[in-house]
Amino acid sequence: MLSIDAAGLSDIRAFTLRTAAGQVLTFKIGVTQNPTEFPPGHLGEHKASAAPVRVYFTSDGGELTAYRLEDAGASGASAGPS
Hints:
By secondary structure, this protein is mostly beta strands.
């Protein structure tokens, strides 16, 4: 996790991460499927600890919108289109 655009823990607008392959990707936060299991504010813990996060997203005109976030375990940061 490289950066988080937020007005507070409950108001995360976007975040930037580096994938295991070295790509730097910026995602805006859409309506998430699992906000109770992984609230967007939890991204701050991932940034502080460098723990990987799995991002499910859509791409529309080059804009990446995250719709599901998960702890990725020890395999490294990942992002996968759906």
